Amino acid sequence: MTPLLIGCNGRGAQASSPERPVTFSEPPLSEQFAMVASAGVFDFFDRLPMEGEVETFLELSAANTLPVTTASGVYALGEGYLSALRRNMERAVKVGAKFHNMMVYNWHDEKRWVTDEEVIRAWADAWELGQEIGIEPCFELHVNMWSEDPRRVAIVAEAADKLGIPFNLTLDYSHMLFKMGDDAELDVSGIREDVAAGRVVLDPYEAGNLVDQWLDAGLVRWFQLRSVTPSGPRNLWSKHDSSNGAAGVPDDPHQRAREGQYGRAILYPFTRPDPDEWHSPWEAWRLEPCKHVARKVLKHHAETPESRLAVITTEMINLTDYGDGAKFSLIGQNAAIAQFLRDEMAALGLPQGGAND
């Protein structure tokens, strides 16, 4: 079995502290690469080079013995979609990336919601372009994106199958776990009635849950782990501000309604923060659902010869709905998650990367 590699999302490379809280302003790339490499638990860096950064990425990757195996980007459907995707894929391939994670907005460039048919076409176009350029695209399960209504994943995957192409899902289940028990968040996804009726099962402990469905269907190509808890505390140290240029935030009706509100509850510390490092009480048991999802994914991979899972990334990041303003070490939280994953993999006998050897 091929070793299962673990990487760190570039937005999580901050050595934050009470004196230097998590911020949108990121350290230089040289510090990011060194930070991720020196953690000793990451096999690669997940970051998309911007225009003019390819040579810098190559130099830093070599200097730190840290490959850039994956790269992530945000897209709006519309006239500029394919040209933006081509440019990003080409830069990603130049730095050695094998997979490109795509967060595709649910809000079209034409200022309307995207249709299932448009998402299906966007996936088919991304797959074709990736085959041409030499990189595999993956569509992520993510808030603000087409997949915030998780029922659409099966629709797009089934359509891809009819087209004779695979569908690659990036599974970040934190985007569903935090909604459990939160009617307002379930309404954003449009699934409150289906959840109440048992037609959509978010709870990973219950039979017929979405994680099991997607694993059994062979959709999961990339697994992302961010610690979160159902109906957890909002980010009381960061508010939505449309003027800050945050990545992954569309100008859609839902987001406009959040202006000035505290960040959504899509991060819960993986290890106990000191009293002054986080805004809310911390209880270890609240981590069990996200740990259960991780164990479920790894167990499926260990027991399924045809498993399509190829990479894992840790996702403790710096934006408003996540860790902005926190005073714990963001890179420390990511490293703790990576070590947890390595321990679970070792218990299952799964081969893993050498973390820079």
What would you note in describing this structure?
It is built from 12 helices and 10 strands. The protein starts with a strand and ends in a 9-residue tail after the last helix. The protein has a single domain, classed as Divalent-metal-dependent TIM barrel enzymes (TIM Barrel, Alpha-Beta Barrel), CATH 3.20.20.150. With 357 residues, it is an alpha/beta fold. It has helices spanning 29-38, 54-64, 81-94, 116-133, 151-162, 174-177, 183-189, 192-197, 210-216, 253-257, 288-303, 330-348, and strands at 5-9, 44-46, 70-75, 99-104, 136-140, 169-171, 220-225, 235-239, 262-263, 311-314. The model has no long low-confidence stretch (mean pLDDT 97). α1 packs parallel to α2 (54-64) and α4 packs across α5. The radius of gyration is 19 Å and the shape is globular. The strands form 2 sheets. It has an 8-stranded parallel sheet with strand order 2-1-10-7-6-5-4-3, with helices on one face.
What's the layout of helices and strands?
Layout: E1 5-9, H1 29-38, E2 44-46, H2 54-64, E3 70-75, H3 81-94, E4 99-104, H4 116-133, E5 136-140, H5 151-162, E6 169-171, H6 174-177, H7 183-189, H8 192-197, H9 210-216, E7 220-225, E8 235-239, H10 253-257, E9 262-263, H11 288-303, E10 311-314, H12 330-348
Parallel strand pairs: 1-2, 1-10, 3-4, 4-5, 5-6, 6-7, 7-10
Antiparallel strand pairs: 8-9
Helix pairs in contact: 1-2, 3-4, 4-5, 11-12
Order of helices and strands: EHEHEHEHEHEHHHHEEHEHEH
Mean pLDDT rating:
97
Computed structural class: alpha/beta
Spatial arrangement of strands, main beta sheet: 2-1-10-7-6-5-4-3
Helix content: 25-40%
Number of helices: 12
What's the overall geometry? globular
Percent strand:
5-15%
CATH topology: TIM Barrel
